[in-house]
């Protein structure tokens, strides 16, 4: 049984005016998230991903479909039971959403107050969590005295205070600079690894996905257009939306002006060769071309690491008569995808 | 008689009247302040998208506030006399005045509270909901504490408005410094009385405003 299972989930907002169609924010989404996953949901703003994540903890009621957490359909629970259920799901936000009227420690204590824990125990637990996120010395500070990255770490400590098995991260790094983003992502990875917390990461940044997500779903106009292992979506994206996102991280394909310039500099036919760690290596690709006796140049591309695995994307210019070139290219062999660049 | 002698002679009466004024204002602040807080809070939580959305409750309170709040106080205090007779047993004097100011202040403070609560970051309310907090807990532990600084400033502003009302309430026989200044200063052509009363009111208002500012600054840690 999956940890979180969404089946044909739809969320509509009423039409702004009579006679208009309702706005469909989430459109028949089905997803399965396993225990221990870091599940990324990526999409442009307005794709419905922030709405989708709010359906998982019932902050927004779904219009149709079912959302099961450990087999319980949360859309059918009473308001009181939904509140109870939410104590088992931590959430962090783009703008941190810390209470400015409370010290850092008392912010972290908040979910424990909701759970009815005693004062001394709350205090002990909050300090323990602040230590876990590396902010033990800031317990008495107020949120506005902290940097953005520190505030988000307090947000993470607060979200984890009641020992939830699930953590929802809604654009948790979008308001942070690149360095702080890395810090927070490392912390989330540690939360997943050390505490076994299942994390759902909402983002519009493919780098976030590449860094921590084990699986990814790509959303476009309310629908999940592609979902799978992060590595396979990166190495073999099936939809135009996914390809655009992948290209923001894997910058190894020449486009437009770059391609025109390359054509001016290099003779011959252009091929793009992609290989994964299950298939060939760079050496085998070059070796095969050399043995076929054609003249070739590497003109663009390189090798990336996604989820700690290799992904290569190379563009080569091959010179020689048409038949020889075809022969050479086909000799590269399995585990490699070769495509001629026509544009 | 020199002005100084006249002021010295006036002082005990004026101070007594100041005391009465502050007493009326304090009572009206307690009643009107609490009713206004409840009404303002209800407006805030029952509105569309609020944490306890109740469209009917919202519209009833909203119409009530919109109807009575804009009525000039000098008309309102006279118009409410019959109700005052029912509730406090008299339509004139300080009891009726406290009653009238309390009602007017409730509507006035309701809007003030509503506006200050609207300024609370919806993100922190969402965070509290995500942590499983009930609406009533969110009111107590998030909305009111987060809005406390602006609320203190708002109530300070309200106290000054109540002092103004207490002077107008002389029309139904309320005592107090403002009414004394009108009766013995303005109506008897005695500018010394008017100006001495004015001077005292200015000092009282300054003290209240300063106290409110300090308190708000302490709460907001700025």
TrEMBL record, chain A:
SMART domains (alphabetical): AAA (SM00382), NIL (SM00930)
GO molecular function, one term: ATP binding
Domain called ABC transporter: residue spans: 4-246
Keyword Cell membrane: yes
PROSITE patterns given in the database record: ABC_TRANSPORTER_1, ABC_TRANSPORTER_2
Annotated InterPro entries: AAA+_ATPase (IPR003593), ABC_transporter-like_ATP-bd (IPR003439), ABC_transporter-like_CS (IPR017871), ACT-like_dom_sf (IPR045865), MetN_ABC (IPR041701), MetN_ABC_transporter-like (IPR050086), NIL_domain (IPR018449), P-loop_NTPase (IPR027417)
Keywords: Amino-acid transport, ATP-binding, Cell membrane, Membrane, Nucleotide-binding, Translocase, Transport
Protein's UniProt name: Methionine ABC transporter ATP-binding protein
Organism: Citricoccus nitrophenolicus
UniProtKB/TrEMBL annotation, chain B:
Record-linked InterPro entries: AA_ABC_Transporter_Permease, MetI-like, MetI-like_sf
Gene3D superfamilies: MetI-like
Protein's membrane topology: Multi-pass membrane protein
Predominant location: membrane
Residues in ABC transmembrane type-1 domain copies: 18-211
Entry annotated with the keyword tRNA-binding: no
Domain of life where this protein originates: Bacteria
Pfam families recorded: BPD_transp_1 (PF00528)
Segments passing through the bilayer: 20-44, 56-80, 92-113, 147-172, 192-216
Localization (cell): Cell membrane
Keyword vocabulary terms for this entry: Cell membrane, Membrane, Transmembrane, Transmembrane helix, Transport
PROSITE patterns documented for this protein: ABC_TM1
SUPFAM superfamilies on file: MetI-like
Protein family membership: Belongs to the binding-protein-dependent transport system permease family.
Protein known as: ABC transporter permease
UniProt organism field: Citricoccus zhacaiensis
């Amino acid at each position: 049984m999956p940890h979180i299972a969404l089946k044909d989930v739809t969320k509509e907002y009423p039409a702004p005016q009579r006679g208009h169609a309702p706005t469909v924010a989430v459109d028949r989404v089905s997803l399965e998230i396993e225990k221990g996953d870091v599940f990324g949901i990526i999409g442009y703003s307005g794709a419905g991903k922030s709405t989708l994540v709010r359906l998982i903890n019932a902050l927004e009621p779904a219009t149709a479909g079912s959302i099961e957490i450990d087999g319980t359909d949360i859309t059918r629970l009473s308001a009181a039971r939904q509140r109870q259920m939410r104590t088992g799901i931590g959430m962090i936000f783009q703008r941190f959403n810390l209470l400015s009227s409370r010290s850092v420690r008392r912010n972290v204590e908040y979910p424990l107050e909701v759970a009815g824990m005693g004062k001394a125990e709350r205090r002990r637990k909050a300090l323990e969590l602040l230590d876990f996120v590396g902010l033990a010395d800031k317990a008495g500070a107020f949120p506005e005295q902290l940097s953005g990255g520190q505030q988000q770490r307090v947000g993470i400590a607060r979200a984890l205070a009641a020992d939830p098995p699930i953590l929802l991260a809604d654009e948790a790094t979008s308001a942070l600079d690149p360095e702080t983003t890395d810090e927070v992502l490392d912390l989330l990875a540690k939360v997943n690894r050390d505490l076994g917390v299942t994390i759902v990461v909402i983002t519009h940044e493919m780098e976030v996905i590449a860094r921590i997500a084990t699986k990814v779903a790509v959303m476009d106009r309310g629908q999940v257009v592609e979902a799978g292992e992060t590595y396979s979506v990166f190495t073999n994206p099936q939809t135009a939306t996914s390809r655009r996102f992948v290209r923001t991280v894997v910058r190894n394909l020449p486009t437009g002006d770059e391609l025109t310039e390359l054509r001016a500099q290099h003779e011959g036919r252009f091929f793009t060769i992609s290989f994964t760690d299950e298939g060939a290596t760079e050496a085998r690709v070059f070796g095969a071309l050399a043995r076929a006796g054609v003249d070739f140049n590497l003109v663009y591309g390189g090798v990336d690491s996604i989820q700690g695995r290799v992904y290569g994307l190379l563009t080569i210019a091959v010179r020689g008569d048409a038949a020889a070139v075809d022969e050479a290219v086909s000799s590269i062999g399995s585990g490699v995808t070769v495509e001629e660049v026509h544009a | 008689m020199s002005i100084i002698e006249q002021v010295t002679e006036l002082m005990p009466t004026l101070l007594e009247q100041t005391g009465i004024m502050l007493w009326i204002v304090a009572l009206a602040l307690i009643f009107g302040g609490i009713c206004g807080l409840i009404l303002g809070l209800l407006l805030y939580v029952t509105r569309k998208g609020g944490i306890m959305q109740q469209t009917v409750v919202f519209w009833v309170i909203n119409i009530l506030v919109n109807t009575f709040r804009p009525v000039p106080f000098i008309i309102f205090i006279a118009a409410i006399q019959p109700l005052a007779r029912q509730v406090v047993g008299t339509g004139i004097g300080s009891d009726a005045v406290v009653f009238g100011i309390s009602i007017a202040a409730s509507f006035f403070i309701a809007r003030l509270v509503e506006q200050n609560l609207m300024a609370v970051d919806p993100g922190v309310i969402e965070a509290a909901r995500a942590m499983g907090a009930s609406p009533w807990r969110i009111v107590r532990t998030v909305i009111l504490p987060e809005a406390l600084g602006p609320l203190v400033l708002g109530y300070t502003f309200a106290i000054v408005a109540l002092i103004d009302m207490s002077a107008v309430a002389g029309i139904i026989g309320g005592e107090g410094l403002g009414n004394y200044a009108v009766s013995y200063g303005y109506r008897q052509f005695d500018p010394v009385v008017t100006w001495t009363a004015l001077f005292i009111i200015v000092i009282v208002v300054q003290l209240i405003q300063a106290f409110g500012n300090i308190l708000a600054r302490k709460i907001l840690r700025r």
